[in-house]
């Protein structure tokens, strides 16, 4: 039986080292580098996180083009500094204007124009709002502007030091792609192509059936679930609703058929909700209404090289970091039909000892959520 020796070193203030082995009999891994090469496989690769003060070094063995990486590599992450990236809804006319003063940031918009086939910066700066708000434009616009904000921060006094200190990242829905790009899982260009296709696929799925989203304000998640159950008793299967976005206590988004959403709105007061706000989105995101988008995303992800992130990237689907590229691909495909676990993500970061976070990109939605969950939390907005 051949065994893959998986070496993991973690150094921090209380340095610890763990060494473990896992069976790789099914891969029939050769036992030496020379035989690896003879079998057409690449030698072990060493991935190093760029944060020298909290470095992690691990080894993986590549067989053909497949690298075997422990998906739980980041399971015991201890966050101190986080980059948080916004999702759809954060866009606003005028965003991206500040970025033009920094060549590296301005260059991202030029690259985007070539990939998207239209002048993204013009829509970002000049609108009109209706055009910028469309799913197919807002998603790439937020992705590019958020990464442009990183470049603006880099030019700031002490900015590079802040970037180097970040040891965890995540993003709200669309923002997960931005976080993965920042963490080196794929390039800016690869990520933008995925985001472009994601927006198009979600728009097409929304056009295929009448659906909507509504925010329910002032109730805990259990009460919102009861509200959904009550609404579902009055509509057909095709119009049923569910919680699609667990944002923070007192703020949950419900998705589903239009009649189901209308039933939620009608019953909300009787459940003591403070208010409901219909969201300006194309349809019922993060529910089965987005099923038609999954196959297109799976195909695009299969053709994309996804690498192990250099720092933990927390998934919207299960609020956990993942290291294995195939697992990351599967989760990104499932993300559009799965509820967003943002409340659990932020709560976990804070519980694990997060000291400082930065919201990079348009808007201040994420900062508001973090502050609602912990008034003492330290978070800074970096716009572009």
UniProtKB/TrEMBL annotation:
* Gene field: LOC18591029
What's a Pfam family this protein contains?
Acyl_transf_1
Tell me the InterPro entries matching this sequence: Ac_transferase_dom_sf (IPR001227), Acyl_transferase_dom (IPR014043), Acyl_Trfase/lysoPLipase (IPR016035), Malonyl_CoA-ACP_transAc_FabD (IPR004410), Malonyl_transacylase_ACP-bd (IPR016036), Mitochondrial_malonyltrans (IPR052760)
MF term (GO), any: [acyl-carrier-protein] S-malonyltransferase activity
The molecule here is called Malonyl CoA-acyl carrier protein transacylase
Q: What is the native source organism of this protein?
A: Theobroma cacao
All residue ranges annotated as the Malonyl-CoA:ACP transacylase (MAT) domain in the record: 84-383
